[in-house]
Q: What sequence folds into this?
């Protein structure tokens, strides 16, 4: 079937007036132009849509059926137009985000404020590891990724918007709690609890120690969530290196302390990342602008100087 919206529009006018001349007047067309559009529509559908008796025009059964569908199509198009206009007005729309697990300690705060301003917006958020995050960017299934370390291999636009200090954390009764300027080699007897392979936090920690002569630790353990590491450190199983963003509550309640280790914090950044040349809806563009201009003032980043 090869029918056009224009043919349907002409058909609707003829149906309303049951008169070709008046339909032509309404549409600012000539009468033969109207007849031709109707003829083409009838040919495409393989059915006569009108019949003439004397000077009068009547809708056939097929015509009645086509009118019903045609009105539904017109309504849908009107709805589409409204939705598009609302999206331009930044009150409706959909935003897809893929967020590194550590970034999810502050992204909900940002979304809370954004959502208050753009109440009709639906946000799809996927909190995931770096590997899946890169897949989503490569497949163009996400508007933005919020991550700690954009990969050089994809064609991406990357914008830093917030500092991400990584600190050494310990339980408050650890022997090194309260010490100042702890030399790195004092840590060699310690057990370190690390994030899983693929974590940006882990990669940054490994780069840091590799640059300083590949310090070896007594023992390392691996856990695949920031929460599990905090629990383990709190229980005295060892030390951890995590983003300060994960520690707000524990530092406030003094369940964990930040050790003053030479070279720490490891200063990193959070980035909002998208594919180069990606076409954004108005709401996605508004979100990007919001993150870049307002995150710093909205987020309460605990101080890395919160040593014991
Ligand atoms: P992650 O955080 O350790 O939760 O993957 C991302 C990053 O810090 O790069």
A:
């Amino acid at each position: 079937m090869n029918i056009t919206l224009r043919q349907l529009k002409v058909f609707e006018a003829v149906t309303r007036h049951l008169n070709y001349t008046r339909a032509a007047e309404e549409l600012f067309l000539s009468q033969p132009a109207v007849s031709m559009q109707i003829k083409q529509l009838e040919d495409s559908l393989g059915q006569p849509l009108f019949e003439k008796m004397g000077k009068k025009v009547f809708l056939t059964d097929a015509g009645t059926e086509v009118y019903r569908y045609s009105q539904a199509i017109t309504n849908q198009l009107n709805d589409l137009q409204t939705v598009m206009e609302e999206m331009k007005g930044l009150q409706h729309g959909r935003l897809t985000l893929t967020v590194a697990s550590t970034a999810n300690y502050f992204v909900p705060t940002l979304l809370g404020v954004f959502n208050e301003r753009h109440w009709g917006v639906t946000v799809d958020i996927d909190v995931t590891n770096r590997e899946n995050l890169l897949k989503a960017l490569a497949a163009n299934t996400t508007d933005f990724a919020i991550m700690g370390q954009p990969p050089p291999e994809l064609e991406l636009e990357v914008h830093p918007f917030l500092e991400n200090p990584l600190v050494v954390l310990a339980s408050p009764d650890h022997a090194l709690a309260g010490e100042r300027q702890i030399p790195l080699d004092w840590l060699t007897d310690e057990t370190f609890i690390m994030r899983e392979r693929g974590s940006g936090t882990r990669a940054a920690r490994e780069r840091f120690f590799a640059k300083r002569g590949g310090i070896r630790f007594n023992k390392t353990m691996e856990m695949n969530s920031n929460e599990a590491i905090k629990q383990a450190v709190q229980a005295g199983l060892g030390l951890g290196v995590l983003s300060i963003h994960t520690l707000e509550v524990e530092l406030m309640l003094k369940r964990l302390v930040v050790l003053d280790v030479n070279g720490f914090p490891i200063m990193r950044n959070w980035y909002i990342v998208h594919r180069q040349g990606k076409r954004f809806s108005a709401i996605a563009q508004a979100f990007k602008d919001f993150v870049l201009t307002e995150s710093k003032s909205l987020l309460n980043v605990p101080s890395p100087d919160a040593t014991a």
Notes: The pocket of 2-phosphoglycolic acid is lined by residues 100-102, 130, 147-149, 195, 199-201 (CB under 6 Å). The radius of gyration is 31 Å.
